[in-house]
Amino acid sequence: MKGTFITFEGGEGSGKSSQARLLAEYLKEKGYDVEVTREPGGTGIGDAIRAILLNPELSEMGNVAELLLLGASRAQNVHERIEPALARGAVIVCDRFIDSTLAYQGYGRDFDLGLLKSLNSLATGGVTPDLTILLDLPPEVGLERSKALDKAEAKQGEGDRFEQEDIEFHRRLRKGFLELADAEPDRFRKIAVQQDMEETHKMVVEIVEGFLEGR
Ligand SMILES: Nc1ncnc2c1ncn2[C@@H]1O[C@H](COP(=O)(O)OP(=O)(O)OP(=O)(O)O)[C@@H](O)[C@H]1O
Ligand SMILES: [Mg+2]
Questions:
Q1: How confident is the model at residue 211 (pLDDT cuts 50, 70, 90)?
Q2: Which among 99, 97, 60 has a CA at the least distance from the CA of 77?
Q3: What is the DSSP letter of 134?
Q4: pTM of this structure
């Protein structure tokens, strides 16, 4: 396909949504045809699934239902947003993708990674990111940021279904993302997100510029 597919990955509150938005603005300014999407979500069907997945009141959700809902959202996102954008040569930026399933459902919920990879390829039809930026930071810091954002948006501050998991869950995710990045150094770039949002954005731009120039 002609386009470029860039994903942001990382734990809760690591800055994925902020950096995806800033990168899209930057690339549009530069004249690129850019689309932003997210997971779960990105489509009407995906956003309806997202509301179910994140609803803290649905604590009865089983791990298998969670996994399949995430897969359904991804399949629709690829079908409706990502494939058409790639076919017309756009840059498509996605906030979370296949690696979140491996980290959350694999490292977090203990599903077999081979099974998850098969499900990912069913959902994506083999579409994989050209570049994945991992925003790494200690989960304590990310969860604090997420809580502060919830408060600012006048949500109840109890956190979504994933934010409510214990700190050990979030530590496993971080370890998982780091292992995934180490296993695929050609696709992944890692940023240690200690600095402010603008500084992080500059690092993202440097990585993406370098990547686009090399294509
Ligand atoms: N580098 C940073 N320094 C300080 N605060 C930041 C930084 N990056 C993002 N934030 C703030 O942290 C909060 C979470 O950021 P953001 O929503 O982009 O993260 P996320 O990775 O998308 O989170 P989630 O996993 O919950 O979707 C926001 O309030 C954002 O403004
Ligand atoms: Mg986000």
A1: very high
A2: 97
A3: E
A4: 0.96
Residues 6+ apart with CB under 8 A from 203: 191
Q: Which helix (H) or strand (E) holds 50?
A: helix 44-54
pLDDT at residue number 151: 86
CATH 3.30.460.10 fits 4-213, yes or no: no
Residue 96 or 195, more confident: 96
Using an 8 Å Cβ cutoff, are 87 and 3 in contact? yes
Specify the residue for token string 């934010």: 163
> What ranges do the domains of the chain cover?
4-213
The vertex-142 CA angle with 67 and 51, nearest 5°, equals 40
pLDDT, average across residues 26-40: 98
DSSP state of 182: H
Give the DSSP letter of residue 78: I
Cis peptide before 40 (omega within 30 of 0): yes
Report the chain's C-alpha Rg in angstroms.
Answer: 16
Q: With contact defined as beta carbons under 8 Å apart, do 15 and 134 qualify?
A: no
| pLDDT at residue 154 greater than cutoff 80 | no
- Ligand 1: residue of 149, 153, 193, 194 to mutate (most ligand atoms within 8 A of CB) is 149
| pLDDT at residue 72 is higher than 90 | yes
Q: Work out the pLDDT band at 1, boundaries 50, 70, 90.
A: low
What is the atom index within ligand 1 of the atom nearest the CA of 152?
A: 29
To test the pocket of ligand 1, the residue of 141, 197, 199 to mutate (highest count of ligand atoms within 8 Å of its CB) is 197
